[in-house]
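Why should sequence recovery work at all? Because a backbone constrains its sequence more than one might expect. Tight turns favour small or flexible residues, buried strands favour hydrophobic ones, and helices have their own preferences. The token representation captures these environments compactly. In the example below, the structure is given first.
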């Protein structure tokens, strides 16, 4: 049984369909066969300016949406990063072996700091991938399910783990990325060349997981389509390919089955069936999400329990790390 770790930033009150299809859905199936740690990485959201008034609520909402997506807190360890101080402690050790060169090469850092002048770029943004490495290595996890955009961070994490092992002795498994196949990347409804994105200013680019049925129908009927009439996955049909991927993920049929089912039918039929499949899929999510947030005491209990399990596992690692780097007094 491998140990799996993944994290999600609490940046919005609910996830959108792309987050579910591209990430949470895989987490849910990984928990069937692995020992999983799923973490709301609230400290990572401090790498860009944040609102202290909403931070904690957002983290809870994110945890609730993971449970509503099918993460079972009885089976997996679900917790908030800031409640396990070992993440920041390990992060310091890793900071001391990370290199300016490798951190400066991170494209996410370059993208996010592009608008700031050198002197004003936040150090947290720079160290982001080191904290991320600490998240995973604190549990000596083997497998890290992430989106395609995190590939480079994973590579850095592997280099850091390997450097630590070579310098101080075998301590960490070098974690492997688990990146879902290309079709799982969900694109914007209004522009299939761009990722479905919560920070976009175009509200119809995405479906929120708690969108009401009428909104879902409106967004799907307004989604752009490609020229031609055929319902087929193809390079030159990015919009229909994206809608097929969504339909397949929420409706349970494969893309090939859907292509057969809709052979000879038009975009209109296809879109209205997709909208209904999506409504049916989102209904239980919305109900469960609201139910969880209506009982904050129960959610607290779950998160406390998760933090206890996580802390114990991370403490175990830190004992080994402190010893390896030479911080243990000989007499103890
Ligand atoms: N950087 C990841 C993202 O933006 C979130 C994250 C933080 C993470 N720590 C992690 C993912 C550890 C996997 C493992 O999606």
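From this structural description, the recovered sequence reads:
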């Amino acid at each position: 049984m491998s140990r799996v770790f993944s994290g999600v930033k609490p940046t919005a009150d609910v996830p959108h369909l792309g987050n579910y299809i591209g990430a949470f859905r895989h987490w849910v199936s990984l928990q069937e066969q692995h020992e999983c740690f799923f973490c709301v990485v609230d400290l990572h959201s401090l790498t860009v300016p944040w609102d202290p008034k909403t931070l904690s609520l957002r983290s809870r909402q994110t945890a609730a949406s993971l449970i509503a997506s099918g993460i079972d807190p009885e089976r997996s360890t679900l917790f908030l990063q800031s409640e396990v101080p070992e993440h920041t402690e390990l992060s310091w050790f890793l900071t001391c072996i990370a290199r300016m060169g490798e951190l400066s090469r991170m494209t996410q850092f370059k993208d996010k700091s592009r608008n700031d002048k050198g002197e004003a770029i936040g150090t947290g943004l720079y160290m982001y991938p080191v904290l991320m490495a600490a998240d995973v290595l604190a549990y000596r996890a083997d497998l890290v399910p992430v989106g395609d955009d995190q590939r480079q961070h994973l590579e850095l994490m592997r280099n850091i783990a390997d450097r630590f092992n070579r310098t101080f002795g075998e301590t960490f498994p070098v974690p492997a990325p688990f990146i879902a196949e290309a079709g799982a990347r969900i694109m914007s409804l209004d522009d299939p060349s761009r990722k479905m994105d919560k920070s976009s200013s175009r509200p119809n680019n995405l479906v929120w997981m708690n969108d009401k049925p009428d909104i879902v129908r409106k967004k799907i009927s307004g989604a752009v389509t490609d020229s031609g009439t055929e319902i087929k996955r193809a390079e030159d049909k990015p919009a229909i390919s994206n809608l097929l991927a969504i339909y397949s993920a929420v409706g349970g049929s494969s893309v090939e089955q859907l292509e057969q089912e809709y052979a000879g039918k038009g975009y209109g039929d296809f879109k209205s069936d997709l909208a209904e499949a999506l409504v049916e899929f989102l209904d239980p999510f919305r109900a469960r999400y609201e139910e969880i947030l209506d009982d904050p005491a129960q959610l607290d209990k779950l998160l406390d329990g998760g933090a206890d399990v996580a802390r114990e596992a991370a403490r175990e690692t830190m004992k080994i790390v402190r010893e390896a780097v030479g911080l243990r007094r000989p007499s103890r």
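A few observations help interpret the result. The domain at 3-184+296-325 is CATH 3.40.50.620 (Rossmann fold).
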